[in-house]
Amino acid sequence: MKSCFYEISSRAKSINFGRIFEEKSTSMKVLLTWVMAMGAFLIALRAQTTEEGLRHLENENFKSALGVFDQLIAVQPKNHLHYYYKGEVLFAMEDYQASSGAFRKGLDVSSKCDECRVGLAKIELVKGQQSEADDFIESALKGNSKKAGIHALAGRAYLYGRNPLLEKALPLLEKARDLDPKQAKYWIYLGDAYYQKKDLGQAMTAYETAVEKDKSDPETYVKMARIWAEGKNLDLAIQQLETAIETSPGYAIAYKELYEMLIRARKFDKVVPVLEKYVSLAGTDVDARVRLVKFLSYQAKDYQRAIVEGNKILETYPDQYTIHRWLAWSYYETGEFNNSLQSSYRLFGAVEKGDTATMRLYPSDYEYAGKAAIKLKLKDTADAFFEQVIALQPERLQEIAGQLAKSYYDVKLYENAVAWYLRKNEIASLTINELLYLGLSQKLLRDYRGADTTFGVILAKSPAYEYGWLQRADINHKMDTAEVKAFLAKPYYDKYIELASAAPEKNKVGLIEAYLYMLVFSAQAGEYDTARSYCDLVLNLDANEGRALEYAKILNGTKSKGR
């Protein structure tokens, strides 16, 4: 087709149109026939190009799709549908302001562009303006009561938004189906609506009907695969995706879904060729590659591949600032905490220097920076990042305080753990687990009175919690520092023994400590028989326990000859 177009273009350049009319040998009829043929050819070429743009859009190759529709607008600026398609591409790219502009331009070109009205309704839904969206949809449907396509488009606007409005989408999609029941796509949309309602049986029936109407549409098989995957039947899901690829080898979405499904099914040996095919179909432009890195880190959780692909992009396109976000995530998840934090710093620096109208930071950006800083034990840095998260999402303070406190405990920054647990406790009572880690942190900081109070709260809430009694006993033992011991721990060891002796093997370590403590207490009280009985209890649990063997020698008044 391209070579044919080149030949006609070359002919056109070589013809002097002024002389054609002067030359008697040239027939006006011949010229008219040639011009009409040229027009028909251009129309055919234009249709193919529109299809190419839509194929790029379907494959999420948005930059290439945008280029196609911009070219079409330049060639045919009075065709309102080109503006509509451009608006759809920009909408998919989440550039809602530019998308709205394209839809409005389509309406300027033709007041009959009802597709553009539906597009503007989608913009209003993104903004949360449902009433305005309803007005655009109503205007689009006016005079189109018999047009299935407009009903389907309107139903899709309500169905595929951030907050699906099923009660509005379903009647429109059902009307589209009733007007044109042979159209497979309408059954797919209905299946998606049922899927949103969690009615998986009806959704599957709709998809199966879509296959009956058109076995060549790969989208249907992808949708069916999702239902099988939700039912944990990954093998059947993979089969459906393979069918989609057999049906349409150029359908990028099927490869992307299959890649993720193979990872979920732990069929790692099949992943790489599928991923490489997806990349080739999604396009070689930088936007497609950036989306791939996002997919690898955010959805597929293939962090190592995300790191490799992300760094490749930065070598050639260092201005792709979002790559630093996905590298921060991926480095953190692979345990490279310093690289993660450095990637976060690069992200923050790029946004600070860049265009704040188009470049954004999210709470998760500060959160990953904070998490990496904790792992690196940069406690002041970590706190500063998490204060940023709380400033952006104050409703998460309780959740963040609990998570942060435990993270600090895990890396042995106990002062920070205590501070964040106490901060959370100001908002809502700590759980038993949180109280446990608070008490342990206080104990490790040698704040024995604070720890004793905390374990007292735990045992008031859960009096049968053996470990709580053991910890309180140990804390009181550590507080008992006078020259003449007061045996502050005795009542707590008594209670621990009462509860733990029901499962001696499970509680072996704690019971040995408790029995040894009671042995010493009994011996100092002159109750030697009781002391011997505790010594026997220890040796029954561990015949080689060194302290018990030494105590046995002393209690028996002779050197041990073994047991």
List the helices and strands and how they pair.
Elements: H1 2-14, H2 17-22, H3 28-58, H4 62-75, H5 80-92, H6 96-109, H7 114-126, H8 130-141, H9 148-159, H10 166-179, H11 184-196, H12 200-213, H13 218-230, H14 234-247, H15 252-264, H16 271-282, H17 286-299, H18 303-316, H19 322-333, H20 337-353, H21 363-375, H22 379-392, H23 397-410, H24 414-427, H25 432-444, H26 448-461, H27 466-479, H28 490-500, H29 508-524, H30 528-541, H31 546-556
Helix pairs in contact: 3-4, 3-5, 4-5, 5-6, 5-7, 6-7, 7-8, 7-9, 9-10, 9-11, 10-11, 11-12, 11-13, 12-13, 13-14, 13-15, 14-15, 15-16, 17-18, 17-19, 18-19, 19-20, 19-21, 20-21, 21-22, 23-24, 23-25, 24-25, 25-26, 26-27, 27-28, 28-29, 29-30, 30-31
Helix/strand structural class:
mainly alpha
Total number of helices: 31
Low-confidence stretches: 1-47, 558-563
Mean pLDDT: 87
Radius of gyration: 36 Å
How far the N terminus sits from the C terminus, by CA atoms, comes to: 97 Å
Q: Count of DSSP E strands?
A: 0
Largest sheet: none
Share of residues in helices: over 70%
Strand content: under 5%
The CATH first-level class of one domain comes to Mainly Alpha
Which CATH architecture of one domain?
Alpha Horseshoe
Under CATH, the topology of one domain is which?
Answer: Serine Threonine Protein Phosphatase 5, Tetratricopeptide repeat
The multimeric state of the shown protein is single chain
Shape: elongated
